[in-house]
Amino acid sequence: MNQEEIQFHPYSPFIPETTRRLILGSAPPSRFCSPNKTELKDKDIDYYYGSYSRGYNLLWDLLFHIFEPESLSELKNIRNLQIPREERTCTQQKFFQNFLQRYYLGIADILYQFIRRDQSSADSNIRPLKFLNLTEYLYHSAELQTIFCTSHYKVFIWLKQYLHTQDINLLKDAEDFYFLLPAKNNQSLPSRKISVKILPSPSPIGRLRFPDHKSFFDNLLKLYTELFKEIV
Questions:
Q1: Which of 21, 31, 169, 194 is 20 to 30 A off residue 231, Cα-Cα?
Q2: Contact 30/8 with Cβ under 8 angstroms?
Q3: Cβ burial, residue 207 (10 Å; 0-12/13-18/19+)
Q4: Residue 232 pLDDT > 70
Q5: d(Cα 232, Cα 225) in Å, to the nearest integer?
């Protein structure tokens, strides 16, 4: 097809002032970026990581298994709401924002404006035009100390590129990545250390390396649990 379209990110970052750890992705699939969103599927959640088609994105299932396994039935119900789209979107977004806030988590994507090729969901078919102004959110959330990138191949690389535009270097100490956020408007204050960790992608494309869905999910759950162990 080789068709390209300029798109904007459809959701505002959810990074409350009390956020301590931020989950950072790239951009939603093309149908979520349409202004009227008429192409959304019945079980799509109109929010971050809400895709349900072709084997759905597993991020929310993983987080609820780790933090609130007793609420998994409620997660299923929120995905299957049979109410008008606008009301459903409001209810679903509030549900996930409340969950994130209970564990001092934030969620955002690094891309603000981008060119997408052939309406593809793959990050490899997205070209950044403008990054999210992430440092402003980091200054606003003074306790934010860790960023979890949901892929190494693109999200981590785009974060590194964005930080470079802010004259901030991404560094490595042993096995951990981090950067130093300069004190805003006060060079006499010390810089703040922000750790950067890589989450295995919860996208269904990773399923191709596993014999079945269960083994794929169990592997992700083990890795995510290890990465989030400090706050479980």
A1: 169
A2: no
A3: middle
A4: no
A5: 8
